[in-house]
Amino acid sequence: MGLSAPVERSKDFRGTLGKLLSRLRSERPVLAVAVVFGSLGVVFSVIGPKITGNAMNIIFDGVLGRTLPAGVPKEQVIESLRARGQGQLADMLAATNAVPGVGVDFAALA
User: Fold this and answer.
1) Is 68:77 a contact under the CB 8 Å cutoff?
2) Where are the beta strands (DSSP E) in the chain?
3) Which domain holds residue 76?
4) How many domains does the chain have?
5) Pair 95, 61: CB distance under 8 Å
């Protein structure tokens, strides 16, 4: 059971490839569509996470900005956090584009 002859390699690879392509000549449009969709799939799998990451940054900045007091400059909020010993939170806030008192910018998400 499972015993079979070893696989033999083609002695004339170019000739074999030519025969295969000539047999698939009638399927050329279908193959072209498959190659195009495969390429689009690769492009979208690269672009998709970048778009999602940017959207998450906009949402995070909005949620964070809404929790901060309106009318107070961001730098003042950061200084206040550092004075209270919350340096990690201050560093995180400094690295964002959050605007105190302003929520999620849905126009930027569109």
Assistant:
1) yes
2) none
3) 52-110
4) 1
5) no
* pLDDT recorded at residue 1: 58
70 in any annotated domain: yes
Cα–chain center distance at 18? 39
Rounded-to-integer distance, Cα 110 and Cα 60, Å? 16
Q: Is residue 10 part of a domain?
A: no
**Tens of pLDDT along 51-76?**
999 999 999 999 999 998 899 999 99
Residues in the chain: 110
Q: What is the dihedral of CA 55, 60, 66, 72, to 10 degrees?
A: -110
Position 7 in a domain: no
Per the domain annotation, does 82 fall within a domain?
A: yes
The neighbour count for residue 103, using CB atoms within 10 Å, is 14
pLDDT exceeds 90 at position 10:
no
Structure tokens at 61: 């900045």
Contacts of 105 (CB under 8 A, 6+ apart): 58, 61, 62
